[in-house]
Structure formats: structure tokens, C-alpha cells
Amino acid sequence: MNTINQKHQPAKPIFSDLSRETFDHKNQSDYIKKFRKGLSKDLIEFISKDKDEPDWMLAHRIRAYDYIQTIPLPKWGPDISHLNFDEICFFAKAADKKGGYESWEEVPQDIKYTFERLGIPEAERAVLAGVGAQYESEAIYHSLEKELTDQGVIFCDLDVAVHDHPELVKKYFMKCVPANDHKFAAVHGAVWSGGTFLYIPKGVKVEKPLQSYFRMNAMNMGQFEHTLIIIEDDAEGHYIEGCSAPKYGSQALHAGCVEIFVGEGAKFRYSSVENWSRDTYNLNTKRAVIEKDGTMEWVGGNMGSGVTMLYPCSILKGDGSSSDHLGIAFANTRQIQDTGAKVYHIGKNTSSRITMKSLSKGGGQSVYRGVLHVAKSADNAISQVECDALILDPESISDTIPDIKADNHTATINHEARVGRLNEEDIFYLTSRGIPKEQAEAMIVNGFINPIVRELPLEYAVEMNRLIELEMENSVG
Questions:
Q1: In this predicted model, which residue has the larger pLDDT, 452 or 181?
Q2: Could you give the CA distance from residue 33 to residue 408 in angstroms, rounded to a whole number?
Q3: pLDDT tens by residue, 380-396
Q4: Taking the model in full, what pTM does it have?
Q5: Exposed / middle / buried, residue 50 (Cβ in 10 Å: 0-12, 13-18, 19+)
Q6: Quick one: which of 88, 199, 408, 425 has the fewest CB in 10 Å?
Q7: What Cα–Cα distance (Å) separates residue 190 from each residue in 42, 45, 77?
Q8: What are phi and psi of 405, to 5 degrees?
């Protein structure tokens, strides 16, 4: 899977000192008093006016708001009926700086400190070609190496792109995930704010990753960032997304959207490490359209949130296109991780691979929910699906719910699902050699998730492993 070059590995991993307190740290949020909770047409119009958006974007928001009134909550998957829109703040700004700050030094000290604790500036200096940071509803900082800017690469806040690159944004915005796709796509289409716009021109290969980090800080906050990525023919890139929020004991909502367009012969990898607090409903939508001979790779880890519903989707539109989905989900106490992947084979000679690992502990519930459809047009499609679940105690649950449909008899499809528990013989072997039981269990878990983690750049593999360790220590609130 190593189709994207990854260079430069610093001696000391950036995220090695992460603790639970790192993520649960919260700043004062008096600014939230300026913004009302709940969803209304007046709010939609306020957001658009505040951003000085063109008429077409306001019209899009209003259409999406109308869809919200008619589209019901999903009837399948986890129960989300307790989510109360009236208790969510759908838009709030901690700093009134349109377009974000031009330098890291200009960022307000309390916000800057939050990101510095998470290792973001250090990561930018060490391994990243560019970085974006969003706090509540607004991007506060974006940067990109001058060499890439000179090659025509665009990496900025999507709010900025709406003004500076209107034709590109209008051509692609919510064309991959339409606002009437489902309830939370409609919510997103109405109140989206901030996010990332990445455009890599034809033939340009960006070897170092670009990253955006999204942080919710205030109580009852909702975040609805939109990530729009356009990779033209024969281009390459790697984008990493990180997310976190502190614990308050009351509802929060994340309903972001990721749209990726992969051109002919292009290669792109999207990696994410999501670590929302257990207050959060994580109802994210991620989808890519891949053209002829294009390659799309998804690498993801879901550690936080009380309820997660997330199924990155690849639409293999072009002949010879391919996708690779790798994911980890960890469901701990009071968590439901309902995750998986969706792949639609449309072009001829397309191929896909889905490898999902899940862990359940403390009564948590992990679910693999997958969709694999092969269209009549998809001659000689090949797909391999592998789902492995590790249950760490008698109270926890793991389910596999595949949906496989092949309308072309030339398709080759392989699906494997395995569920197991920690092997007592392995634990006894390790403990008999002086290794504490907790450390022995962690060693077995690390071996289980290693095929996924090793596909991340070193620094983010360290972060993922540290998050797993925190879960194993039962220290996550």
C-alpha cells in the first residue's frame, strides 16, 4: 500500500507525550454566550452574511435547510434519537479574524496553546508540507510551503476558497455528497463552516503530508467543517486530519463532510485520527470519486465519541481505478463505534481492498457495517474484504453487517470476518516472563492493530498507539 512516498522521520516522535489531560484541557469559552443554540433559517442567513458569501452559497444553504425538515433520522444503526438539536450550538467563533491568521505568532495565546499541546506546530516544522487549524466554527491558521504554492498547489480554509477560487469550489462543492443524501448531509449543507480546500494540479506530486486539525472547545458545540480535495490527473498527495474535543458531560455534535475527486492516473491518501470526547455524536460523511487508473487510499482510526457512524466511501468510476480502505475502531465503556467502508465498482477492471480491525472493551460495542456493490458495467471487478474483531472482556460486543451485491458475473469477491478474544495462553506466556498483565494485553492489542498503524507516518502511528494505550488503561472519560 505504500504508493505515497513518506520522507523525513525525526528522532523523537512528536506525539509521544500525549495524555488524556492533553485532550480534555479546555479554554474559557465566554464567546459562546454571543451565539444561540438550535437550528433555524435565521441562523443559516446569519452564517452566510457573516462570511460575506456569494448568493449561490446562501441558496445552497437554504435548500439544505429545507431538506432537514423532510428527511428523517436514519432508521438503521445506533439509536441517535436522544440527540437534541436545540441543545447544540451550530455556529460559534472564538476569534473574529476572517480568513485566519497569517502567522502562528498572531494566533490568540489560549488557542495557540491548545494546538501546541497537541503537537501541531512541531509537526508542521518537522514533517508537514502545510497545516491548517480550526477552532470551533472557524479556521484560525493555514500555511503551505512556498515551493508547492509556486507549483500551483492550493491549500487553504474553504471559506477563503469560496471567495478566492469560486469557480473551482462551485464546480465540486457537495457534488460528491449532495445535501439531500441523508439527514446529516442536509444539516452539514446548511451550517457548514471552515474546513479545508486542497487542489493539486495535473502532474504535481506532493511528497510530504498536509494536515488539518479540528478542535471543539466549548460545551454543547457543533462542528461542521467541509473538506474539499481535488487531485488532477497524474498528481499525488497525502492529507492527514486530526480531531478532538474535551469532555463536559453534555451533548456535542460533529457532522463534517469530506469530498475527494481523484483524477486519471492520480494517487491520493487520506488519513485520519478521530478522538472526540464521549459527549460527542460523530456523524461524519466521507466520499471519493476515482477516475480511470486512479488510486484512493483511506487510513483511519476512531477512538473517541459516544456514538460514531462513519463509512468512508469510494466510487470506482473509471476503468482500472482502485481503492484501499484500512481502519481501526476502539469501542470502550458507553461507546458505540459503528464504522466500516463503502465501495461501488462502476468502471471495468476495478479493484478494492477493505481491511478493518475493531476492539471492544468495558461493555463497548463495535460494528463493522460495509457496502460492496458491483455494477453491471464493472467487468472483471476484484474485491477483498477482511474484518477482524478483538473482544477484550465478556461484557463487550462486536458485530459484522456486510451488504454485498454483484450485478456482474465476472466479479471476484472475497469476504472474511473473524472475531476472537484475548488468548489466555498468550497472556500467561508473557506474564510468566515478568511482563505485567496490563502490558501483556497491550502488546497483544498492538500486534493486532499493527497492519493498520504502520501505514501512518511515524509521528501519527505514535499518536494512534498512544491513544490505544490510553483506552487500554481505561483512563478515557
A1: 181
A2: 57
A3: 999 999 999 999 888 99
A4: 0.90
A5: middle
A6: 425
A7: 11, 10, 24
A8: -140, 125
